[in-house]
Amino acid sequence: MNGFGGFAVRRAAGAVVTLLALSVIIYVVFYVTPGDVAQITCGPRCSPAQVQQVSAQLHLDDPLYARYWHFLQGIVAGQDYSTGTSVQHCSAPCLGLSYQSDQQVLTLILAKLPVTASLALGSMVLWLIIGVGTGVLSVWRRGRLTERLLTTVTLAGMSTPVFVIGLVLMIVVCGQLELLPFPQYVPFTDDPEQWAWNLLLPWLSLALVESATYARITRAAMLETLTEDHVRTFRAYGVGERAVIGRHALRGALAPLIAVNANNIGVLFGGAVLTETLFGLPGVGREMVEAVKVVDLPVVVGMVLVTGFFVVLANAVADVLYALADRRVVLT
Q: What is the DSSP pairing of strand 87-90 with strand 79-82?
């Protein structure tokens, strides 16, 4: 298979291999550790009989390769879990069972995922608009006071943590000025207007931090493109500066922007821990924090797997977008 189709298949195969390698690392980190893994997995309230049952379900007496195989088989094909009084079947993809809440990990994640997805997608739209727009404007006004001011602002944005910006916005915008309500998640299907209105402040907090990175990347890539021979040729033929910047220089910034955006959106889909915790949004990141607090190991492992999945998926999509933007990538 040649051309774009072959390229897409190779990238998909590479993503699968990466996910398998990631699952090995996660299993080793969380399940091949000193201490009683069965006791940690089951939780402090489990009786010795329940701990023994969890140990049998995790196949902790088997060789390491067999233990990992059962772990992987549970994800791909599903698994049965005994809760002491009943048996639960966890359908594939099965990320395990929380012995503290007797709920399937995937069910917990899917219940929280709409919140995280809403936060990630809304923030992405804002940081792309603000960041790319700021980068283009600084190139358009290069060598002037506007560029120096924008450069200073982006440096300040990159050095300021998201929780600081979020706290300041909540105090000023919600507390003092009362322009926005204190964030609380309203499902999009219930009320789209309130959904957006309540998420606007978290969106802005993330976007103001991330847009600084996009502004610097856009500016650097566009300035580099403006020094290339084909741009000088366009100018020699009388192409206006606005067209040179908007059509040709901006195109040179697409590749690094796609790469950075893919990584950021993948991590956000896996759970924006700081933002969700700060604004009290019941998303995947906040659920992970709660799971860590009570040492709910299956939930932590499942959420780390989901985070890795979204990062790998986002980067695979980015590779495909590279190929669509630049056909030369298909030949590599």
A: antiparallel
